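Quick one, T. Sequence first:
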Amino acid sequence: MIQWVLDRKWLPEIIFGLASLAFVLADTLIQSASALPAALLLSLSPLFFRRFALFQPLLIVAGAVTQVLTGIQPLVSGMVAPIALFLAAAFGIRRFGIYTLVASGLSGLFIAWNAALNSSIVKDIYGIHVFNDTGRWAAFTFAGVTVLGVNGFAWLAGSYSIERFRQKNATMERDDVKAASLRTRLDIAEQNQRFGIARDLNELVLQRISGILALTDGARYAAKLDAEVAPRTLERLARLQREVHNEMRRLFDMLNMSVQVATAPPGIRDLDLLAAQYRDLGYPTVILHRGTRVELSAGAGLNIYRIVFEALENIRNHAPIGTSIDIDFNWTESGLQVLVKDNGVETEVKSGLGIEDSGYQVQNDIDALTQEVTGAGITGMRERAQLFGGNVEAKVVPGIGFTINLIFPSLEDLTAGQE
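Structure tokens:
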């Protein structure tokens, strides 16, 4: 489930938000329409566990205050707060998740305090008769410990879930990197073995050629004395030349095999390893494929790999550590679109640098809407894409970051020459 949530933007928020409306319906049926405003405020909080995360603690506090001011009983929708807290701890920005933890805890204590002081609520809900202040404080203590315990457990569960997921992914990525390293070492070892064999073959060839030269010189002088020596000499020369030819053929095949192994080009599948390397560098990178994938020709796969690689290098050179990177492949029946997106500007602002300190100004947003992004890197990407009938569009998304849009209208251009 965690990977599913991470791979999608607003769909999980919408699903959790719609699911929380069931709590609103339950509160409305139990306590009539008077419970609707507070229940609705609380139930909207799961919509903002990633984007616009500041709304989440504000909605929880607003729901608790509305509940107390309207004088209604504790709501079933209060269960949404721990759920929202779990989501914030697992998927949100940590700073805003802490805000949600504090808001949920204080709101729960506020509702518990109001319920403990209002003896009718305690009696109606729990069947407990409280006649003095000691009983009220005991009820508040019990309710407060329960609220803090549930919220703390939700926070720890969310933090543990995402950390365990990251550790599992990190282990898998380390295994992939290790496997790739072992494959490279094996290829190098095999090439070294081939070069050793080629060296031996080369020595044999040199020996055969030296023999041919010596035999040729000797035969030239011997033929002057005895003409019958020539046929025997020519026979031996022919045999030696055939041996040399066979050794040269073996040497050629061996060297050609080494070149084929050494020049195997990277392709789209190698982007998973590249993404893992960038995650290790501190840039959360996600690759997502939509539609039916098609096997591309080696040249097309290499060019797409190089374009994505250049885009990632550009992000690494200009965006701060912590910048999220999305690489989206949209496969259709006729073409392919590749999007490389980052939130470098947003990350700089949220890191506490501020727009002015980061060097980003309002004029940058205006330029992003009116000016075309140019540069040697972008030109190189376009030239690579045009080789296969594609095009590259580069733009700055105001307040967010940079986007590379790679479009290939025809899949036939990408699969031409596919064996």
